[in-house]
Amino acid sequence: MAAASSPDPNPPVLLTAFERRFRHPPGLVLLFFTEMWERFSYYGMRGLLKLYMANYLFVTAREALQGCRQKTPPCALVAGDPNHVFLWHWLRGLLPSNPQEQASLLYGAYTALTYATPFIGGIIADRWLGQRRSVVVGALLMAAGHFAMALEGSFFLALSLIILGSGAFKPNIATQVGNLYAPGDPRRDGAFTVFYMGINLGAFLSNLVCGTLAALYGWHYGFGAAGVGMLLGLGVYLAARKLLAPDHLTRMRTERRNEPVRLSRDERRRVMALVALCALNVVFWAVYEQQGNTMQSWADERTHWPSVFGFDIPSTWFQSFNPLIIVLFAPLLDLFWAHQQRRGREPSSIAKMALGCTLLGLSFVVMIVGAEVVGNGKGSMLWLLSCTFLLTIGELYLSPIGVSLVTKVAPARIVSMMLGMWFLSSFAGNFLSGAIGILYTRWSGEAFFALLAALGVGTGLAIRAFNKPLRAAIEGAARSR
What is the mean pLDDT of residues 53-66? Predict the structure, then answer.
């Protein structure tokens, strides 16, 4: 993490003893834990979602406990009726008949929409609500959605509440990280790396808690734990909001300043550069999000999981490996980049993102070999874990770097909207991931994972091809600030 003081004599937040000692303002810690609990709730629910739909909600012979295969107590299958789920009778006619394919498409649509609504949420925050109020509204909506999952009939209502809440929460919590630092402050990238660790600490813990509760006591206990996590995040945020910088909207109103409506030529250049970069990221997210979709199906159906002291590890624990790698390796990568910077060899942000996409694609070469070795049976969990390790390093080269770049380059008065636009690339990618996931049930494992490898490597090469024009536009805009 870069150790440097703010170059601005009037920093966005008052200098504290905490900041003098730890190099970052205490508000970063608050946002770290707020985001940690929000991601705990999101990933705890996401890790269960596809299996819940395919093995419980949309079938009549249901697994009462996540991962239950036996037909004898306490793991007996139970009878159910999917038609009791509101809107299912109408939606079913639009989907394939295979429950796995139904679940894949709905999983992709849900995760996609959680990344589409932040664009609207960012506009609302920039123009009317401000970032702080938007975060509170979003947290309340998401908590209500998680608790609504306890009622099977309200399944689609629950998903809708979480989607809307994510739109209000997601762009505005990240914007507040950037607000802690003055323009040009070299600590900003390090701050987003710390923030990204909070995201993944929550994701790591979520499946250990929510997945285990679903395996021991039932699906709805896992979803309920996700709701509790969201309320804890809201409590942390409300307890210490004084440590945050004022919203940009609040500052403008306090100073009674009116900002120009139209973007300047330089600002339009920045926006177009970011739009182009986001468009190139769509395929990255389509391949990456197979983790919670087809990779989770492989973990559930094609992988031997060990027993520890008589406890059978549920397949949903697989979802905790990716965030664990991020928590362990993000600080090491930050140190590595700082070392490269001192020697004048640090890649540009665009080059890092191209490398991230390439690593993502190459990671699925492991699964191509694994599919050949495993065949139609079950195999070692090392195939999944090796692939996930490599794609996670790729993620670290792309995701936090991209968010930090948006907060640096986007015009201040539309930064939340631009972060929402960044998440739109995840929206399109997640939606595409659901469509690609259908091929998992129709193609051989080798062919499916070869497709993912080709998409990842191809996108990395495409970003690298656009490196010079994108770098010139983005870095030129950054200097002009």
Answer: 91
